[in-house]
Design a protein that fits this description.
The complex is a heterodimer of chains A (about 110) and B (about 120). Chain A is mainly beta. Chain A is about 0% helix and about 50% strand. By secondary structure, chain B is mainly beta. In chain B, about 0% of the residues lie in helices and about 50% in strands. Chain B has no helices and twelve strands. The chains are: A mainly beta (about 110), B mainly beta (about 120).
Chain lengths: ~110, ~120
């Protein structure tokens, strides 16, 4: 079955370190999204991509970057981790940007 | 910019009680509307969606939602909840013409169903 996976599932890091969260989908979807989930804020869009070599900033993109070198993967990089980036991160993909998004299991990131 | 409001942040119900979770959005154009559910420790999954047609849509596990355009609302309902419905529920909106093909989520409603 097609799926979307994220790794690692849990990570603890220190302030100032670079961190990369992986997202891999086997749906063959062109559209991929990264969200962070925080209490009281729901899910907020960090970055998204409509296809290979395409990346776009979402509403909370500061301090994050993504790259899309193939259809299956959209890694999320925190250039210099900050405590404010402690959160749960979800990756999602969709066939059509305006239609159902399929979510990965999430990565819980703690920045000390 | 589009925004989504979920007014009930925490709801506690007894089994067999009826459920209605409110969702309002702010966008005057055509929208796609979604309800997602996140069970404890799991990822988000789609409950139901509305794009066009019959404003009363049915989803999985006995859930339904009604789109009322004049009220900019898409409330989620279930006639009789079960303990297994304990989860967090998110309303999401895509403004097809002006939303940039992105989903905007509400802040979520935490539902706890007691035995």
């Amino acid at each position: 079955d097609a799926e979307i996976t994220q790794s690692p599932r849990h990570k603890i890091t220190e302030t100032g370190r670079q961190v990369t969260l992986a997202c891999h989908q086997t749906w063959n979807h062109n559209n991929m999204f990264w969200y962070r989930q925080d209490l009281g804020h729901g899910l907020r869009l960090i970055h998204y991509s409509y296809g290979v070599q395409d990346t776009n900033k979402g509403e909370v993109s500061d301090g994050y970057s993504v790259s899309r070198s193939n259809t299956e993967d959209l890694p999320l990089t925190l250039e210099s981790a900050a405590s404010s980036q402690t959160s749960v991160y979800f990756c999602a993909s969709s066939i059509v940007p305006t239609d159902t998004q399929y979510f990965g299991p999430g990565t819980r990131l703690t920045v000390l | 910019a589009q925004s989504v409001s979920q007014h009930n942040h925490h709801v506690i119900l007894s089994e067999a009680a009826s459920l209605e979770l409110g969702c309002n959005y702010s966008y005057g154009g055509t929208v796609n509307l979604f309800w997602y559910v996140q069970y404890p420790g799991q990822h988000l999954q789609l409950l139901l969606k509305y794009f066009s047609g019959d404003p009363l849509v049915k989803g999985i596990k006995g859930f339904e939602a009604e789109f009322i355009k004049s009220k900019f609302s898409f409330n989620l309902r279930k006639p009789s909840v079960q303990w297994s419905d304990t989860a967090e529920y998110f309303c999401a909106v895509n403004a097809r013409a002006g939303g940039g093909n992105k989903l905007t989520f509400g802040t979520g409603t935490q539902l706890k169903v007691e035995l």
